[in-house]
Amino acid sequence: AQTDHDVLVGVGFGIWVSRLGSIRELAGIKPHYAMRQWLAMSTPIGVSVVLNQLMQRADVLILAMFVPATQVGIYGMAARITMGVGQCKIAFNRYWASDMAGCSAVRDQVGLQRVARRTGRLTLVVSLSIALVLVVAGRQVLLIPGEGFADAYPLILILLIGHLRMADFAANIECLRHQ
Known about the structure:
By secondary structure, this protein is mainly alpha-helical.
């Protein structure tokens, strides 16, 4: 539902912007840029954003083909709540990527290992902290959207295990990308 909403808002905004350009032309106001060129250049970016949104929610879309909508909603809530743990890995890898690339460029294996260790430890510590909060307060967090989501607590625990394993290996995977 969120992805559909994002797509509709994006399409609506694109139509509004294109209409705005037509109104400016009728009013005799010259735009600072060529609307058709701008839309032609931004369309691939828009398509990639839509495809990225679909890929990020592929698990929910596939699950929806086999499981009743109520259970898909419960799983979707658990996945959204645990997403913060996965975002730590992404954020830290982006932050340290320039250091890793610099060490890789000069073939500094010791420096690359140091950065990977530092990134891995920090990612794991922050991810474990968020996971601990979700383990302790997960049931209360699930009551915020409604009592029907309380069944998602075991799913949160399963998803947390996966996120923590990824956080444990995140820096090493990023390090291998720079080899």
